[in-house]
Amino acid sequence: MLKYIGKRLIQLIPVLIGITFLSFAMMRLAGGDAVTYMYEKAGGAVSQEIIDEAKKEYGLDQPFLVQYGKWAAGMLRGDMGTSYVSGREVFDAFAEKLPATALLTLSSVLVTLLISVPLGILAAVKQNKWVDFIIRFFSFIGNSSPNFFAALILMYLFSVKLGWLPVVTSENIGLSLILPTMTLALSMASKYTRQVRAAVLEEMNQDYVTGARARGVKGSVIIWKNVMRTSMITIVTLLSLSVGNLLGGTTIVESIFMWDGVGKMAVDAITMRDYPVVQAYVAWMAVIYVLVNLTADILYHYLDPRVRLGGDRL
């Protein structure tokens, strides 16, 4: 197990190099930089000498490979750089924004599981009956609706019309959390419900379920003790993908509701060509996906001993 974990962590190195190098290149190809952006937005006339001096201060006058090399060397020392716009340490900015994104991730995953698992099981047990058709219909609608559309509908209904919830994030974090959580949970729960239904139906057609029924075992016992344990592999797979996306920051939802997380921070940094923040965000996303997938692989191994990890002997 430790050998497998070490191997996966070593594989993270070329992934980080490749992803950060490509993102560095694409930001440069997009044109512009933080210094030019700041002076353009200032509204006043600034001489080219001042702009060039500011670029030299930030190292933006150096060749692309030199800039990337200095950033990579700093990352190896644990230095994520300094924001060109705010002047703050990038690590401090991430540490400040991460709790908000982690809170939104946790609440969204919990609500998604509370909705999708019971509905998925119910749809499978009531296969091809009116309950199944209703659940499948609404899950199709939810899965087809983009996040920004669901966010606007919920905002209009609960904030504008009913006035129950704040339109954007306010000092009341509890109330502010409801709308972005509902927005994310609607699409995820719709997808999860269909996947849970499919996984449960597949297991219910297995011979061991038929045998358990023939022995007089209750249907609820079969579902929760046998079928769901095997179906957990599907749920863990979905969770690993969703948690990676959510921890990386749900940029659209965070921007709509002005939720002050890493996703909104990344959007602002891209707009202002704040390279150190963008690069740190890209590296963060790569690390999160590798670690979440690694965790999912380990969970597979414990949920189903037939699943062998690299280095395990049969």
Describe, in plain words, how this protein is organized in 3D.
The protein has 314 residues and is an all-alpha fold. It has 2 domains: 2-76, no CATH class; 90-272, MetI-like fold (Orthogonal Bundle), CATH 1.10.3720.10. 77% of the residues lie in helices and 0% in strands. The protein has 13 helices and no strands. The protein has helices at residues 2-29, 34-42, 48-58, 64-76, 90-125, 130-144, 147-161, 173-204, 207-214, 219-247, 251-256, 262-271, 275-303. Helix 5 (90-125) runs antiparallel to helix 6 (130-144). The chain is globular.
Q: Output the helix-strand order.
A: HHHHHHHHHHHHH
Question: How many helical elements?
Answer: 13
Distance between the termini: 13 Å
CATH architecture group name of the largest domain: Orthogonal Bundle
* CATH domain class name of the largest domain: Mainly Alpha
Uncertain residue ranges:
none
Helical content band: over 70%
Please tally the β strands and state the result: 0
| Superfamily (CATH H level) name of the largest domain | MetI-like
Major pleated sheet: none
Q: What's the rounded overall pLDDT mean?
A: 78
Please identify the structural class as seen in this structure.
Answer: mainly alpha
Strand content: under 5%
What is the total domain count?
Answer: 2
Morphology call:
globular
**Per CATH, what is the topology of the largest domain?**
MetI-like fold
Instruction: Write down the Rg.
Output: 24 Å
